[in-house]
Each structure stands twice: as C-alpha cells, then as structure tokens.
TrEMBL record:
TM stretches of this protein: none
Database matches in Pfam families: Zincin_1
InterPro entries assigned: Zincin_1, Zincin_1_sf
Coiled-coil residues: none
Entry-linked Gene3D superfamilies: 3.30.2010.20
The protein, known as: Metallopeptidase family protein
Superkingdom: Bacteria
Protein species of origin: Arthrobacter terrae
CDD domains: MMP_ACEL2062
Length: 135
C-alpha cells in the first residue's frame, strides 16, 4: 500500500498546546503590547475558554477565536470606572488550535487575536482592523 504523503504533515486539529503552554503564549502576546498602550488599558481581564458557546439567537457553527466584551474606552464617561466590572477578553483555545497547522502558527494566531481584541477595547471596529491587516 502506498504511503500517504500527508500522514507526517500537521493538519487542522492536530496541533496541540497544553493549557499552560497556551496561557504562556497569551501572556507573551500581551507583554508585547507597547507600554504606552498597556498603560492605557484599564479594567480589563483576560480569560481562556475551550470554545465559544453561541447564544440562542446565534449561528451554532460560530467559531470565534476571541471575544471582547465591555465598553470601549472611546465610549466611556468620566464616571464609568466607579464600581464597574472589568471588560473581558476571552481567547478560545480549541478553536485557535483547530485553525492552525503548527505550534508557530498557533502562537502567531494567539498574538493576532490578542491584538484584535485589545483593539476593540480601544474602540477600533472590525472593519478598521481588517483594513489594518489584523482581521
């Protein structure tokens, strides 16, 4: 029987990073944010979940890599921070792993996703992010 030439190549879903490795990569991505931007980020918490769980009115096939939930800095009033819960940035570990072919690609995708979601915190929308190459 002929050998499958793709058998030794990584493919979607085969790439694995432990949760600890994934967390380390996410922390490294956040650490690469320029200091002036990092200092401007206020009241933001980062989370890692396995997959996005779409709501009842969403497409069940939704496969988000990350999600920003909160009030962008451009929309906050002066009193906004008093007692407010932190904004949330969530990375979806298994969805990112499933979309990549190698560890290097996973680490790159984590960085792109972190930058993308932090940009939402600063009020940058998806259209602008796509135009900048961070879509």
């Amino acid at each position: 029987m002929p050998r499958d030439p793709l058998a030794s190549m990584p493919y979607f879903g085969r790439c694995e990073l432990t949760l600890a490795e994934f967390q380390d990569a996410a922390e490294a991505a956040v650490a690469r944010i320029p200091p002036e931007l990092a200092q401007a980020m206020t009241n933001v918490a980062f989370f890692i979940e396995e997959r996005y769980n779409p709501g009842p009115n969403e497409d069940p096939q939704t496969s988000l890599l990350g999600l920003y939930e909160g009030t962008p800095l451009t929309e906050r009033d002066g009193w906004w921070d008093a007692g407010s819960l932190p904004d949330r940035i969530t990375l979806y570990r298994q969805t990112i792993l499933d979309s990549c072919l190698s560890r290097e690609e996973v680490i790159d995708e984590i960085t792109v996703t972190v930058v993308h979601e932090i940009a939402h915190h600063f009020g940058i929308d998806d259209e602008r992010l796509h135009a900048l190459g961070w879509g």
